[in-house]
Structure formats: C-alpha cells, structure tokens
Amino acid sequence: MKRTEADTRVLRTPDERFTDLPGYAFQPHYAEINGLRVHYLDEGTGSTILCLHGVLEWSYSYRKMIPVLARQHRVIAMDFVGFGRSDKYADRKQHTFEGHYEILSAFIDSLGLEKITLVGSDWGAVVGLRAATERPQLFERLVIMNTTLPTGDVPLNFTFMLWRQFVDLAPDLPIGRVISMGVAHGYRITKREIEAYEAPFPDSSYKAGAVELPLSLPTNFDDPGAAEIRRTREGLSRWQKPAFVLFSDEDPMFSKEYRSFRTLIPTAKDQPETIIQGAGHFLQEEKGEEIARHILKFIERTPGDSASRD
User: In CA terms, which of 8, 153, 229, 294 is 20 to 30 Å from 66?
Assistant: First the structure.
C-alpha cells in the first residue's frame, strides 16, 4: 500500500476517545508502516500469538482473551489500518485486499515476529491466512474463527450478500448497532461496550475501511483478490502444521463454513471438533475467556517441535 502525493486524507482518531474504555486497560504500541501509524497491543512473554480482528471490530474485541493468553504467551493484537487506534484512509479506494495484506506483512517484519500462532476471525482470518500460506516459515499454528475464503467461483451466502447491500447503502454505518445485532440471542452487551466499539469512528469519514472491506471480498472469478484467495486455499490444502477451527453455532453468515475448513486443511481433523455454543458472529466478545482456554489447550497439544514443520 504505497502512498502518493494524492493520498492526503489520512485520519487519526483523537487519543481521548480511547480513555477509560471498559475492560481495555492496555498500553498502546505503535509501528510506522509505509508512513502510517499502526497500533497494536503487546502483552505477556513467550511464544507469539498474533490476534487479527474482523470488520467493524478492533483490538478491543480481544480484551477478554488477552489476559488469559498472556499468562503463558506473548500476545500481539494489531489494529488494521482504518480501525482502532491505527491511522485511517478516508478514501474507500485505498482500502484494498492487497494493501491490507502488505501492511500486515510489513508489520510482522517490523516486529520481527516468528513462530507465530495466528488467531484470526472474519476479515482478519482472510488476510492472516494469506500471510501464513505465503510465508509459512514464520507461522507455527493456525486458529481460524468465523470466516470464509471466497474465490468468486461460488456464490457468497444470502445473509452475507444482504450484509454487503446494507453496508453499501447505509449513509453512516451504525457500527455499534450492527455489533449488538450480531451477538447471539440473550447475550447482553452494555452501552459502554458499544461505545467502545464506536470509539475509533468519530464520524462517517473515519469509516471508509469498515464500509469498503466487506465489499472488497470477491464475488466474481476475476475480481481483485480472488486469485490470491484461491492461492490461499491451495496453500491450506497442503498445510502440515497444526490448525484449529473454532466457530460459533449462531453466526448467520459463517457457521456453515466450519465444516469446509475442517475438510480443506489436512491437520484440522487432528484437533477436536469445537463449536462454541450460544455465540453469534462476534464470538470473541461473547465467549472470549472460553475461546482463550481452548487456544491454550491447542498450543499445549501441539508443542514446538511438531509444530515447526514446513
């Protein structure tokens, strides 16, 4: 994602909007990537767990998982450009699949990360799995949650297409309301937590990434990103390191994708079938501590020697 003289509309959310967020008392860290400030959390010590959030979310969604994981490991939770405390392009056209992959790859290099356990959901898994399959020497394990890998040759499901249409037509994407609607029936998300999810976006001009990324997933065979995602799927079909597929039971968009990932990745079948009960699309929000415990057990089952095969 190279910047030119025309790329002048880069926004930075005021720091005061991140003051006293419920459950989020973490020290911010920043990396300079292609002239952009990229925010991340860095908690704990030991082997690296890299957490990548989905669309509408930011590192806040991992706040319940981080304390559990950081007791034994180093946890890095990055905010994608356009989200959280990272800089934001105001121009939707700057938010491309290729550009976000380049930012993630450069971020990994800037921190010198290796022997990574990837934890990715939604959009974060799409980009993260590409990184893992294109640079497998840096990754030891995969944890895949509530996502899809569309290649443009198979139609996206009806619910996701409705979501894309809503995003495209909404004059000001109501992020907090969408998150509150995306959790499982009966889960109570508080007003302050909704405000925390909205904190990165003072007004609609900050939401270019949140609007564009759902629309950037390919729906046709030759759409941008389709060939790269096909290459990712091919890489996963040959993946020989540990992989853990961890989906929720009430995600209207992606719950049915659970079985396809278990089938696609040879080593996924080595792990127990795990479907998080009573959780919707935003499973880190709803079941964060439970998910973190599952991930710790997965890492314990797959020690470094067996996980380090290329």
Answer: 229
Q: Is 281 a catalytic residue?
A: yes
Contact 237, 266 (CB under 8 A): yes
Q: Active-site residue among 39, 53, 100, 122?
A: 122
Annotated catalytic residue: which of 281, 294, 305, 310?
A: 281
Domain that holds residue 158: 10-303
pLDDT at 99: 95
For residue 2, tell me if it sits in a domain.
Answer: no
DSSP state of 255: G
Look at residues 133, 137, 138, 136 and name the one whose alpha carbon lies nearest to residue 107: 138
**Within a domain: 160:** yes
Which CATH number characterizes residue 195's domain? 3.40.50.1820
Decide if 310 is inside a domain.
no
- Residues with Cβ within 8 Å of 305's Cβ and at least 6 positions away in sequence, in order, are none
| Annotated catalytic residue 122 | yes
**Of 141-145, 156-160, 204-208, which gets the smallest average pLDDT?**
156-160
Residue in 251, 294, 305, 310 annotated catalytic? 251
**Residue-wise pLDDT tens digits, 72-125:** 999 999 999 999 999 999 999 999 999 999 999 999 999 999 999 999 999 999
Q: pTM of this prediction?
A: 0.94
Give yes or no: 15 in active site.
no
Asked, for residue 3, whether it belongs to a domain, the answer is no
* Residue 142: strand pairing partners: 118, 243
Closest C-alpha to 194, from 26, 51, 60: 60
